[in-house]
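Troubleshooting: if your tokenizer reports a length mismatch, compare against these two reference records.
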Amino acid sequence: MRQLPRRRRWLTAGAASIAACVLSIAALSGQDDPLLKGEPLTEVIARTQKEKPAFAKRQQDLLNARYDLADRAATGVTMTRGKVVQDGVRVKLPANMSWEQLAALSPEEIKKRNAWPAGFLPLPHPHHEAGGMIFPKLLIDETIRQTARDLTRFDLDFDLPDHLIPEFPAPVFLVTRPDLGDVSKGELITLDNFERLFKEILNPKQLEGLRLLVTPFPQQQFNLTDDRRSLKAHQGVGCFDCHANGHTNAATHTVGDIRPNEFRHRIDTPSLRGVGVQRLFGSQRALKSVEDFTEFEQRAAYFDGDHTRAARKGVNPLERGSQVHFMGEFQNLLDFPPAPKLTVLGRLDAATTSEAERRGEALFFGKAQCSTCHPAPYYTDNLMHNLRTERFYNTITVNGRTAAADGPIKTFPLRGIKDSPPYLHDDRLLTLDDTVEFFNLVLGLKLLPPEKRDLVAFLRAL
């Protein structure tokens, strides 16, 4: 047989190699990609809507098993605009166990007895296998009313009840104009009203930054292709759809930087209040400025860390000098809510606080060791810490989420913390009372019941 010339043999072999790589990549990525599988959108809708009630029940059963979801308000404690703060520990204990008995056990004993409360395990996404951005109904309804843009997914709904998430819409405070109080005037900021609300308060660069923050861009579940989870072709998602009014509405997602899927964390949407004093951003905490985060969030979280999907769905890379910088400047104007009980150094003013709050402050900076990671005045050390919760439980997969090691997590600021339920990086702690019980075990603090109540009282004053 006649041998091909060397150059032609090289080209033929190269083409075959490239073809094999393409087929291999398509086979791997096509496992969950309707475009590559060729499943028509109409069939995706029919299939997922048929499955939807079963997955919704699965998640609701998990929440009911782990938590007390009752609407039980704390007496005389509200968020900044008046929504009541939820009271009490909501995580359910194992049978025949009290919090004091549990705290007396070592991590090894808790693990051996399988006594770690299920509510302290990682919380799965509402449908963990499907993942993706999912929004509370309050945000969906108001966005439709103002802009006719529908953020409803046809395959799943948000899972937590309204009384356990932040007030909506949240007030907006600016470091440049603290005299104005809530500059949103009780409205959800959208493309429909941002100029009317802010044109006399911001300079043109800052106003353009705000415009971009409320502008929708294509996203994995909301886009113009047939690989989406909205019934109609969609403009996309804006930064302030999750960070509503520069705060949070508890919208959730799964992180893009972890694989395989069962190990991906559910994301708690952090507040952007006080973002100007923070130094770590993104689920992997690899971004060192809010400008870095703003520039790369769309390419990462919006498309589950898959740049090939981003290109196909219409990613819009932002220009650093004329867009990212403007967006970052506005975000750095977002202030924490007023805290009338704190001094200028972030400590309690003895003249305006209760004995319980002052005892709680002493615990926070003493026995409870909270200030090690949350120093005043902003109550963050801008670092990451590994709580090593895997000391307390055996690896288990629940609702598609494998509870193993969480790894290092960011220290979030505690200023205005009562306005930002639920807590921890994946929303597993529904109240501040839950948070105190969690860290009492994780840090081995041996706090007494009255001390826990005092610590919660202090946290509510921040």
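Reference record two:
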Amino acid sequence: MSLADYPFSQEAAARVKEAGYSLEGLLEEPNQEPRLSRLVRRRAQDRVLGAVRGEIPEEKTHPLAELLSYPLARVMVSCLDDDLLSRRYALAEAKLASRKMAREDLASLILLAHDLDLHPQADQDCLRVPFSDYLKAAARMKSPGWKLVNRSLEAGWVSITGSELARLLEERARDRVARGLPLKVSQEVCEKLRPDLGQVEEELRAKRAEERVDLGEVTEEAFPPCIRGFLSQVAAGANLAHTSRFALTTFLLAVGMKVDEVVGIFNRSPDFDEEKTRYQVEHIAGRGGTAYRPPSCATMATYGNCPGMDSLCRWVNHPLSYYERKLKRGGGG
């Protein structure tokens, strides 16, 4: 197993420290190794651009350049200080590691697991992990097969397969990469990285425009004040309270939006987790057998989710009734 394949590992960080290269030195392109410095900066930019595009490409490069490009990429992400980019970056690094883990043998996976604070044990009959480690690693995975009640649990150990260990390690890698982002980076350092960040900013803007949810035949101008307020908060990057998120999700599904579209609405939330959000939206949409309806105006007021009534609100008692009446009046008219 090559440490350069998993630059987020503690051993890789120790190797970088031993190499003696400083961030300042890489940015100044020291005379002794200008080629290495260029390789590191280019690969770091590749890592961040890959996060924006959805996948960090694998590259056969100088092993030290691969190791050094990871901390520099984290600095680049921190300079841009964008919640969506930070989430994408952590996920993209974890997916890159997952592709490499698929080529490792079990002994190498167990070695990496210990580095990532997962402590499996293997014998001829079974591979297992402590249930506390399992719970932390599987927290975001909502499919029934990962639920603890559906696992073999004995004396505090959860039985898993080798491929399941790799999947758990992907989640632990994602947490490790996300830890501490954004870093505290000086303005001076960010200015030196400006030539590398321009293309990233441009592609990030394009990605946001591309992923902007098209409401299609849904008439946003006919939404009641509460729903418009929730959408404005989400667009501004705010975390909605649970009751507000439930009200928004049930309303959008009720007026005809698809699950994918509703999930996309929430992708600017600081705590956005696509897998978890999709599971929750699908559950609300009726995947479990019960499709939930939006709460009434009285319930919205009880939970403090009514921002105040406009002239039409006084004549209805439900957000969907508001929407229907507004449509009959001609949408925003």
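Descriptive notes for reference record two:
- The chain has a mean pLDDT of 88.
- Strands lie at 121-122, 127-130, 153-154, 157-160.
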